[in-house]
């Protein structure tokens, strides 16, 4: 579970790593390319999960999901947890906002300012920090694109900038950092619980763990591709954004299938079944996209 907490941060760090360039024109092109790609995927996700949300609202005769508060959460804070089966889409939304902010900072050649602010922004997202600061400044809720997306993207850009240094570091030191981060994360969780503070899955050591995992990955990277690396490169994003839709489909049809499937096979092998089914869905989706079939719906 501790490793799983690093999934979205690692995605953002990887994105920042491949985004980085000393040349402002190259960085501008990469940001625009990233915006187009993520926006296109996110738009299709909104159509898909938006339709599910509307269907659920009509079925329950409850349209409170479209309240002003949720609209503010969506447009201002980049949060989509109110969408049916789509709370995981927040990271795409906030990454889009982060790219827009990076674009404007790059126009004024001051992306470094974001890098300098990132440690502070990252700390401001921790529930532990909020607990101590709130008595002084009051309760606050900062947008996730400021406290998560931008800091982790900047972390990736910084690692890329100084990759010559990290590639010289002994891998055993990095492995030791990963093990220490995991151990300290376990004790950090227990410490905050004992203090009566709900960390809400936001820990100081998660930041360190994400950093060490990524540094280890660039140290051990090679050019040899295999089936798993190809799947990861081409379909990982699609698997992440569409897997809950596939899960919803299975939940919908399970009652109409033999009990051997619904009571024995699916409950025990759901992760594998959903993963493989989502891969097939992603392949079909990309095939339709490449043949311009989906373009007619834009």
From the N-terminal CA to the C-terminal CA, the straight-line distance is 39 Å
Radius of gyration: 21 Å
Fraction of residues in H or I helices: over 70%
* String of helices and strands: HHHHHHHHHHHH
Oligomeric state of the chains in view? single chain
The chain-level structural class is mainly alpha
Care to count the β-strands? 0
Major sheet attributes: none
Note the topology.
Layout: H1 7-19, H2 24-60, H3 68-75, H4 90-107, H5 111-124, H6 127-137, H7 144-161, H8 163-166, H9 171-194, H10 204-219, H11 227-253, H12 259-290
Helix pairs in contact: 1-7, 1-10, 2-4, 2-11, 4-7, 5-7, 9-10, 11-12
Give structural attributes.
single chain, 298 residues, 74% helix, 0% strand, globular
Quick recap:
This protein has helices at 7-19, 24-60, 68-75, 90-107, 111-124, 127-137, 144-161, 163-166, 171-194, 204-219, 227-253, 259-290. It is an all-alpha fold.
Describe this structure in words.
With 298 residues, this protein is mainly alpha-helical. 74% of the residues lie in helices and 0% in strands. The chain has twelve helices and no strands. The chain has helices at residues 7-19, 24-60, 68-75, 90-107, 111-124, 127-137, 144-161, 163-166, 171-194, 204-219, 227-253, 259-290. Helix 1 packs across helix 10 (204-219). The longest helix is centred in the first third of the chain and has 37 residues, at 24-60. It is globular and about 55 Å long. The two termini are 39 Å apart. The model has no long low-confidence stretch (mean pLDDT 83).
């Amino acid at each position: 579970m501790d490793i799983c907490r690093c999934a979205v941060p690692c995605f953002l760090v990887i994105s920042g790593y491949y985004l980085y360039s000393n040349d402002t024109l190259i960085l501008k092109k990469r940001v625009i390319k990233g915006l187009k790609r993520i926006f296109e995927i996110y738009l299709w996700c909104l159509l898909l999960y938006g339709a599910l949300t509307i269907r659920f609202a009509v079925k329950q005769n409850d349209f409170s999901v479209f309240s002003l508060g949720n609209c503010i959460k969506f447009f201002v804070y980049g949060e989509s947890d109110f969408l049916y089966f789509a709370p995981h889409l927040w990271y795409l939304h906030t990454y889009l906002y982060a790219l827009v902010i990076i674009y404007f900072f790059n126009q004024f050649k001051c992306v470094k300012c974001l890098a300098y602010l990132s440690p502070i922004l990252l700390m401001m997202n921790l529930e532990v920090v909020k607990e101590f600061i709130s008595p002084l400044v009051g309760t606050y809720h900062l947008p996730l694109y400021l406290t998560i997306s931008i800091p982790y993207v900047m972390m990736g850009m910084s690692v890329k900038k100084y990759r010559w240094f990290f590639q010289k570091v002994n891998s055993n030191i990095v492995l030791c950092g990963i093990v220490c981060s995991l151990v300290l994360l376990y004790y950090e969780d227990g410490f905050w619980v004992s203090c009566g503070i709900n960390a809400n899955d936001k820990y100081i050591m998660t930041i360190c763990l994400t950093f060490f995992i990524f540094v280890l990955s660039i140290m051990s990277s090679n050019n040899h591709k295999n089936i798993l690396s190809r799947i990861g490169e081409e379909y990982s994003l699609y698997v992440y954004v569409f897997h809950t839709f596939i899960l919803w489909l299975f939940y919908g049809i399970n009652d109409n299938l033999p009990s051997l499937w619904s009571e024995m096979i699916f409950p025990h092998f759901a992760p594998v079944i959903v993963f493989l089914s989502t891969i097939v869905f992603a392949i079909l989706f990309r095939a339709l996209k490449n043949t311009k079939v989906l373009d007619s719906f834009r």
